[in-house]
Structures are given as C-alpha cells and as structure tokens.
Amino acid sequence: MGTARLPSRVDFACLLVVLCLPPHAGGDAAQSSWTPINRTSTMQDIYRIHAVSRNFLPSTFLTSFGPMFETYLTNEVGQRFHPPISFAIGTDTVSSFFSSADAKAFDLALAMPFVTNCLEEEYGALPLLTMRDLKMGHELNRIGSVVFTRTDRFDMINLIDLKDKVVAAPSMIILQGMHRAFEDAGLSIFGDLRAIFLSPNQDILLSAVLTNEVDAACAPADVVDELMRVSLYRGLFKVIDPLPGLLVEGEPFPFQSTSELLPEHALVAMPHVDYRVRREVAAALQSLDRGSPECVSAGIAGWQNAL
C-alpha cells in the first residue's frame, strides 16, 4: 500500500552475473582464469558520472562519492578492460542537468526519482541500481515527501485546502514528486495553486512558512521529520494529509509522508554506454556493503537491483 514504482526498461540489467574475478585476486590460478574485456570502438577512455539531487551539494558529492565512483570504479572496473577505462564525477543543478544530458556531458547519473523517470522517457536511459540510503539510522530504498504548514493554520487540514494558496518548495523536482498526491486530492499543481515559491535554502523556506509569507511548503519526508525534532521548531509545524500504513520492505516507513513512496536515488546509464560497462559497474557497486569504506564515505548502506 502506498508504494509507487517508476517504469523501468532494463529488468534484464537487474539480473547481474559477475563474469570475471577482480584483477587483483591472488594466486596463479585466479589470475589465469581472469580474462580482460577487450575494448570496442564504442567504449570510452573515461566515463563521467554526474549527480543531480537535493542531497548533494557539488563539493559534498565530490568528497563523499569520489572514493566510490572515481577511485573504486576505476580500480575495480577499469582494470577489467583492455586497455583500461576510468571514471570521473561531476555535478549539475536541476536547471543545468537536462542541458548536460542533451550535450552528452555525462554517461551515468545519480538521480532522484522524477529525474530518473525523465531520463528514461526522454533519453532512453537505463536504471542500473537503486541506492540504499541511511536516514536517521534507517536503511531505506524508498523516499517520501510531505506538505507541511504551521500547526495553528486550522484552515489547512487536507490537501484540498491548498486551493488558491501559495506553496513553497526547494525545487520543481520536489514539487513534481507530489503530483500524484495533489491529483488524488483533486488539485492541479499548476492550475489550482495561487502561486509557487521556490528556494533551495531551507532556512528561507522555514521562515516563509512561519511568517505566513507562504501557506505551506513541500519537502522530503526525512528532512521535515528531523526538523520537527529540533527543540527550536518543536510543535510549530504539522504535516498535511499524511498517508497511513506506508511500508518499506514489509516494515513501517519511519517518517510521515503526504506522497506515495518512490524508489530512492538511482544510478542511471545513458543509452550509449556499452552493456559490458553497465554490467561491470553494477556488479562492482553491488559487492559493496554498509561497512565498505566507500559506502561509509558516501553515507549510504549500499546498492540493490533497480526498483
């Protein structure tokens, strides 16, 4: 109940088979059984991985995911090819991301659900893996979003009460993630709201809600849950229309969510990436676990087959 699934065109990519041993495996027998993958004319020297997410500022992504996406993949996957390939990372803003996709400025992307869906539909991109994130001690492969307002806004109980109101969000991506919830309530994001206020700055959004500059705001479920636990803000906000009974892998979702749950960030390959590169990247990342230095650096629990 309450679980949404984005379309996927690569169910076959989820059945991963490790076809060779890592190049550093010890012993003569291991080395003799490992056969490099000869590069073809369609393969590149460098594969670029970009991120677009509310979670990762450019400097944060480079620091936290560099050990995984650059160092680890270059060492573990790059050496499986002859000649070797390497990996580099970069970031995009929401506004620049699709221009970068048009320019083929990246080959793989770490993207939020709505962005993943757009990449699939508009570019034929292939989701390889879903990230298992760590949020406030919970290991999760799905995310939710909320609409929240001041607790003393007694005129705002249900989503339908947002009609002709001003709603804030950190980005249009977050607001688009609420599309289904708004639709189920009989609202159109672009037709029934009086205005939309956008700011990536959390403090500005909070101030706008507290001062009634806006009537309500949309934000990721875990962010609002953590905010409502801070003594400074405790009791000041409420979630509008939280869905009951949300489950993740058979367990209750630990946060209130106005929206249905969507898959966590996905690692997506653009269609020009050779299937052997996709296969080796997916296998290498799935071999990491919560205690791996690369996962610790990134603050995640690991990776799983794409949802």
Major sheet size, sense and barrel closure: 7 strands, mixed
Order of helices and strands: HEEHEEHEHEEEEEHHEHEHEEEEEHHE
Backbone CA Rg = 21 Å
Distance between the termini: 16 Å
Percent helix, as a range, is: 25-40%
Shape: elongated
Number of helices: 10
Proportion of β residues? 15-25%
**Can you give the mean pLDDT?**
87
Give the low-pLDDT segments: 4-32
- Structural class of the helices, strands and pairings? alpha/beta
**Extended strand count:** 18
General description of the model:
The chain has 307 residues and is of the alpha/beta class. Helix content is 30%, strand content 24%. It contains ten helices and 18 strands. The chain has helices spanning 28-33, 58-76, 94-102, 113-123, 172-176, 179-184, 202-210, 221-229, 275-286, 293-298, and strands spanning 37-38, 46-52, 81-82, 86-91, 108-111, 126-135, 138-140, 142-143, 145-150, 166-169, 195-198, 216-220, 237-239, 247-248, 251-252, 262-263, 266-269, 300-305. The strands form five sheets. Strands 2, 4, 5, 6, 7, 17 and 18 form a seven-stranded mixed beta sheet that branches. A hairpin with a 2-residue loop joins strand 14 (247-248) and strand 15 (251-252). The longest helix has 19 residues, at 58-76. It is elongated and about 65 Å long.
